[in-house]
Amino acid sequence: MRISTAQFYFQNSQQITQQQINVNEQSAFLSSGKRVLTAKDDAVGFGTLVGFKDEIAKIEKYQRNITIAENRNSLQETSFSSAVDVLQSLKQTFIQANNGALSDDDLNSLGLVAENSLEQLLDIANNKDDTGGFVFAGFQSNIEPFQRQPDNSVTYQGDNGVRQLAIGSNVNVDLNQPGDRAFLNVANPIGDFSANYLTNTSGISVSRAVVQDRGAFNTTANPPNYNFNFTSATDLTVTDGAGNTVFNTNSYSPGQTIAFNGLEVQLSGNPLPGDQIELQPDENVSVFEAVSSALAWIEVGTTPANPQQHNVDHAVILNQIDAAINHLVARQAEAGVNRQLISSQQNIHQDNNLTLEQGRSSIEDLDFAKAVSDFQQSQTALQAAQQTFVQVRDLSLFNFI
Predict the structure, then answer these.
(1) How far apart are alpha carbons 61 and 166 in whole angstroms?
(2) Which CATH number fits domain 55-187+318-351: 1.20.1330.10, 1.10.10.60, 1.10.10.10, 2.30.30.90?
(3) What distances in angstroms separate CA 200 from CA 222, 275, 357, one per listed residue?
(4) SS3 state of residue 148
């Protein structure tokens, strides 16, 4: 068969080009360490490989979120632990302050300790995270949440927002506990009301005041402030905010349950004629309120105007400090539960990532020994094609004349 010069050049050029393509492909495989770079390399496996990589990318995103969530919850757990330590120390100081042998100078020194406790708690409550945002401000992370007032009360400037972050396809975790829930909403240790002791010569105190029947309480028309008035040790009259009598007895005995308008109230101690107590709705106290009250109690000094009431106040404040400690321990535990969830989800991602990486590797990773052999074969084939072309190109009939 006759082959024209043009046809000869074209065929050899095609062969050399194909061999060069093979060499380039093998070189790309070796330099990347991968045997599948495009769908052409493995049409069936390429789709599966894309799926593996998508899932691995999702896990990487969740792992970044896990790092953020762990840092935030760890900071909160540490903050609550520090706050508990401050309150435990304050509690011991406050117990020590209730000692009749102490002088005013002694109480002044203890008052400084209580003052420092309040400042420490404020510093903790105004903690910042690694981004510079206030941890306990809710969504208002750029505003300092807790501010001390001249009367030692503390106001909250944040909100009740809770930020969440996805750490799994259907798993979200809280990044923060808002400041009101963290430091303000401490359950009132006596129940749903606080007591204002108008006259207290006997040293009686309210030990329990709870809404037992919410339906009956909610249907009460008059304001839910109640005045307890003892005209004798056994004669008790309770009036509501409008002055209407809601309970009356002439046979009161210490510790008995006083029930009216869905409420149940118990008093401790033996009342005397003229003792008066006002109950006001108050389901929560705050951590700062307990500390400020302790500071104010100590600052009264060694000569309170009403020693009996002063002792009652000490017991009330001590109960509030205990309630604040329990509340902060619960908040600390909540952060700990979040960290357990984060750790569990991290382990799941690590296991899934290992499986996905194994699947990806089985499709994509290069067998270097085979790849080197293929590359060498491609190089040899290219060199042979080039040499053959040169040798045949130089042949001519004139060489044989």
Answers:
(1) 9
(2) 1.20.1330.10
(3) 26, 5, 75
(4) strand
Instruction: Give me the phi and psi of 296, to 5 degrees please.
Output: -65, -40
CA-CA distance, 351 to 336, in Å (whole number)?
A: 23
Residue 321 near residue 91 (C-beta atoms within 8 A): yes
Q: Cα(80)–Cα(18) distance, rounded to whole angstroms?
A: 70
Alpha helices by DSSP H, 172-306: 179, 214-218, 287-299
Crossing angle (nearest 10°) for helices 307-364 and 43-97:
160
From the CB of residue 91, how many other CB atoms can be counted at a distance below 10 Å? 19
Q: Which residue has the tokens 């008035």?
A: 229
Q: What is the DSSP letter of 192?
A: S
Tokens of 291: 């500390």
> Counting Cβ atoms within 10 Å, is residue 78 exposed (0-12), middle (13-18) or buried (19+)?
middle
Phi then psi for residue 61, to 5 deg, are: -65, -45
The DSSP output letter for 128 is B
Taking a C-beta distance cutoff of 8 angstroms, is the pair 204, 249 a contact? no
Domain boundaries, the chain: 55-187+318-351, 193-282
Which helix (H) or strand (E) is 151 found in, with range? none
In angstroms, the Cα distances linking 256 to 4, 55, 118 are 122, 66, 37
In one-letter notation, the amino acid at residue 394 is D
Successive 10-residue mean pLDDT values, the chain, 401 residues:
54 56 53 55 65 87 96 98 98 96 96 97 97 96 96 96 95 97 97 96 96 93 92 97 95 95 96 97 95 97 94 97 98 98 95 81 57 56 56 50 50
Bridge partner list, 206:
267
Rounded to two decimals, the pTM is 0.80
Please give the Cα distance from 220 to 223 (Å, whole number). Answer: 8
CA 359 – CA 182 distance, rounded (Å): 46
Phi, psi of 394 (to 5 degrees): -85, -5
Closest by alpha carbon to 231, among 172, 274, 174? 274
Of 237, 257, 234, 235, nearest to 246 by C-alpha is: 237
Query: In which element (H, E) is residue 335 found?
Result: helix 307-364
